[in-house]
């Protein structure tokens, strides 16, 4: 029971961080939003910016699979990674991160059988960006 409470508290803290990042973006403070997302990705998930931008999908998939995240934590990871790349830019680094978000969303759907309207919207934005270089 204590472990479940700890996990629920951790998930709640991550949700609050994501809300803060979105709030900073809405206020136009993209630099601080990006820094907070990178810091959280590093501290909470152990993924450094360089790995996320430069690793292959296969390397990323291996690492995510090895860590065996719960569906809830995987969903928060996908949200946080999406927010670290949004608004999308036409750079190799951004495209690499966006592909990794798409992988996480696919993993949520196929392995955890979870699909949300928010994630469907993210997937559509990603597909539009990758296929047409536009997302809105």
Task: Give an overview of the whole structure.
With about 140 residues, this protein is mostly helical. Helix content is about 80%, strand content about 0%. It is built from 7 helices and no strands. The N and C termini lie far apart (about 45 Å). The mean pLDDT is about 85.
N-to-C order of helices and strands: HHHHHHH
Could you estimate the helical fraction of the residues in percent?
over 70%
Rg value: 14 Å
What's the total helix number?
7
- Which consecutive residue ranges, at least 5 long each, have pLDDT under 50? none
What is the distance, rounded to the nearest whole angstrom, between the alpha carbons of the first and last residues?
Answer: 44 Å
Major beta sheet summary: none
Q: Pairing-aware structural class of the strands and helices?
A: mainly alpha
| Approximate strand percentage | under 5%
Write the layout of secondary structure elements.
Layout: H1 2-26, H2 30-45, H3 49-54, H4 57-67, H5 71-85, H6 92-110, H7 117-132
Helix pairs in contact: 1-2, 1-5, 2-5, 5-6, 6-7
Brief sketch in words of this structure:
This protein is an all-alpha fold.
């Amino acid at each position: 029971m204590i472990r479940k409470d700890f996990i629920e508290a951790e998930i709640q803290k991550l949700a609050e961080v994501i809300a803060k990042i979105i709030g900073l973006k809405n206020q136009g403070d993209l630099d601080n939003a990006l820094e907070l997302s990178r810091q959280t990705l590093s501290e909470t998930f152990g993924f450094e910016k360089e790995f996320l931008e430069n690793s292959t999908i296969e390397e990323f998939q291996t690492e995510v699979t090895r860590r065996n995240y719960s569906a809830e934590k995987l969903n928060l990871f996908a949200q946080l990674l999406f927010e670290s790349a949004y608004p999308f830019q036409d750079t190799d680094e951004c495209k690499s991160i966006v592909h990794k978000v798409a992988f996480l969303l696919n993993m949520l759907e196929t392995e955890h059988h979870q699909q949300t309207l928010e994630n469907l919207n993210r997937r559509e934005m990603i597909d539009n960006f990758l296929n047409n270089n536009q997302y809105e």
